[in-house]
């Protein structure tokens, strides 16, 4: 098999999407940790457009952007599929992945918001987006893919770990049994899947990392007010 490499960054949920997909499919790969403050020549060579991680390198050919990489992995290694065979179900899965992309700015607004009214407004908007995802996307299923995890579960996997960190850092709780019972149960189920459970960044280390980012963001925001 041609050599597979992954250029990633330890706290990145986008890197972890690719890690989960590769491990679910049993694909051997070499992981290469990037220092985003001092990007390697390899990263700049393989992703000259965005200069970002993750980048999957397969047989010397680079593929960038996590969701594009997931599609590439699915097509290249079709065993243990992450998308359903039925065309309609496959289209539906892609719809919900795209929903996360479209609503990304709203979902990230909770982390980037300042205290007070701005944070409360962001929390309300995020809750509305997640309720639609829960009712219309997840429904009564264990996973978005039914009884096994799919590309949709991988795409939203950051909710099962990173979002908890955001809630703690910001001081808001949204993903609770009382507010989002379906998504809350989904998070618990997802975190019990061995590939997910065994490949999550250390929670306390991630909290420190995210607190530092938020402090810098808010200080920059205040300096421009």
Automatic annotation (TrEMBL):
InterPro entries in the cross-refs: Glutathione-S-Trfase_C-like, Glutathione-S-Trfase_C_sf, Glutathione_S-Trfase, Glutathione_S-Trfase_N, GST_C, GST_C_Tau, Omega/Tau-like, Thioredoxin-like_sf
EC number: 2.5.1.18
One MF annotation (Gene Ontology) recorded for this entry: glutathione transferase activity
Entry keyword set: Transferase
GST N-terminal domain: residues covered: 2-81
Matching Pfam families: GST_C (PF00043), GST_N (PF02798)
UniProt key word Transferase: yes
Gene Ontology CC annotation, any one: cytoplasm
Catalytic reaction(s) noted: RX + glutathione = an S-substituted glutathione + a halide anion + H(+)
Gene Ontology process terms (BP): glutathione metabolic process
Residue ranges annotated for the GST C-terminal domain, each copy included: 86-210
Homology family: Belongs to the GST superfamily.
Name of this chain's protein: glutathione transferase
The species this protein was found in: Ziziphus jujuba
């Amino acid at each position: 098999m041609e050599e597979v490499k992954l250029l990633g960054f330890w706290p990145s949920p986008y890197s972890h999407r690719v890690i989960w997909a590769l491990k679910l499919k049993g694909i051997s790969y070499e992981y290469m940790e990037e220092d985003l403050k001092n990007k390697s020549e390899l990263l700049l060579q393989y992703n000259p457009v965005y200069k970002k991680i993750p980048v999957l390198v397969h047989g010397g050919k680079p593929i960038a952007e996590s969701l594009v990489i997931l599609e590439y992995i699915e097509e290249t290694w079709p065993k243990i599929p992450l998308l359903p065979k039925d065309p309609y179900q496959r289209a539906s899965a892609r719809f919900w992945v795209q929903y996360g992309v479209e609503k990304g700015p709203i979902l990230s607004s909770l982390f980037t918001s300042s205290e007070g009214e701005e944070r409360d407004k962001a929390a309300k908007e995020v809750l509305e987006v997640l309720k639609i995802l829960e009712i219309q996307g997840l429904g009564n299923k264990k996973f978005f893919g039914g009884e096994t995890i799919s590309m949709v579960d991988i795409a939203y996997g950051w909710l099962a770990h990173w979002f908890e960190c955001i809630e703690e850092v910001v001081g808001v709780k949204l993903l609770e049994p009382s507010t989002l019972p379906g998504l809350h149960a989904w998070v618990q189920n997802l975190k019990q899947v061995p590939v997910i459970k065994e490949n999550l960044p250390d929670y306390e280390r991630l909290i420190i990392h995210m607190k530092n980012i938020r402090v810098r963001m808010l200080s920059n925001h205040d300096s421009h007010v």
